[in-house]
Amino acid sequence: MANKPIAMNKLRTVIRLYKEGRGKLFIATYLDISKNTVKKYVRLYEKTKLPYDEY
After folding, report:
1. What SS3 state is found at 41?
2. Domain boundaries along the sequence of the chain
3. Using an 8 Å Cβ cutoff, are 54 and 20 in contact?
4. Among 48, 38, 2, 37, which residue's Cα sits nearest to residue 17?
5. Stated pTM of the model
6. 37-52 as b/e, with b when 16 or more CB fall inside 10 Å?
7. Tell me: the pLDDT tens digits for 15-53?
8. C-alpha–C-alpha distance, residues 33 and 49, integer Å
9. Phi-psi category of 11—alpha, beta or left, where left has phi over 0 and alpha has psi -120 to 50?
């Protein structure tokens, strides 16, 4: 389904894995989401410059 938002825990995992240096394809495969979805949320994360604190 197009434009379906992902769960917050998946979003946090996307950002965590990205900050650890994992590739977008790895993240997409690991979380079973599309690579474009990963790219979208990484782009938004970088654009907003939000701090990321591991819990």
Report:
1. helix
2. 23-48
3. no
4. 38
5. 0.82
6. bbeebbeebeeeeeee
7. 999 999 999 999 999 999 999 999 999 999 999 977 766
8. 23
9. alpha
